[in-house]
Amino acid sequence: MARFLYNLVFTLVIPFILIRMWLRGGANPGYRQRWAERFAFFKFTGKAHGLLIHSVSVGETLAAEPLVRSLQAANPDLTLTITTTTPTGSDQVKRLYADDIAAGRIFHVYLPYDLPWLTSRFINKIQPKICIIMETELWPNIIRSCNKQQVPVILANARLSEKSAKGYAKFPKLTQPMLQGLDLIAAQHRNDADRFIRLGLADNRVDVTGSIKFDIRVPEQALQQGQELKRHWGKDRPVLVLASSHEGEDDLILSSYQDLLADFADLLLVIVPRHPERFDEVAALVLDRELHLVRRSEAFQKGNLQANPMTQVYLADTMGEMLLLLASADIAIIGGSFIE
Questions:
Q1: Catalytic, out of 60, 65, 135, 277
Q2: Is 60 a catalytic residue?
């Protein structure tokens, strides 16, 4: 009954999801593209019986890279299908694995909406031998479709906040069968593992493996580019980076930044919004405070990345450059720190 109600509600809200996608497409055109994939209509050009990795968006895609590279090295003849749900995540996959996609070693597509007739069609097309889901992207029907096809499902780099656990606990008849459909959870921390167990996961199906993000190797090129950027800004100028900022955090850090100017007059604040549709919103917040702003995208167009001595806020309104921007920082604040 719980699954029936879930499917019914999900089906009824699909038109509203599409309307929201279209509206978001005003700021990010990617939301208006490739809708057929979200209904499992696509041509699969990879090999059957490969590996399926779902990495949701940008952060999960970056975190999954060491895992993807290890799986490629161990299974060079297998097709790795990498799915995301957001256009920014999709763009990140294309940037990271451009050569592999061109060579047919990696196939990329959006994960379809979590309705049984869509997830079944998707799994039948891909025919993976293992499904690996990154972090917390749990959808009942994709897991059930894998179970029906006898495809083992692993939740990797898993995390579960107390707030999310309480949310799942409100729907035990949906949550427990979903968790029981997982063959293994590799949790980041002991607390995450305990929350999954409290929700009904058998304790012999969870291991604490730590965060895979500590396995990320920062390319030497990114480190060099970050230091070069800092030299352009002034090697002795302090740089504070707010990385992957959420809505509400930018205003808080801007307020604190203005207070810091009394003691650090030449402090440069670099803001990297989490979602591209917020670039203009963040720029407006900066200008409302009458701070001198440089947008990285405009600096690219002018062929000059240098923030002059008058620049107070440098808005990183580009994608795929987080590592080099962090390499330029003296102090970094990670998004979510103020609101989660």
A1: 60
A2: yes
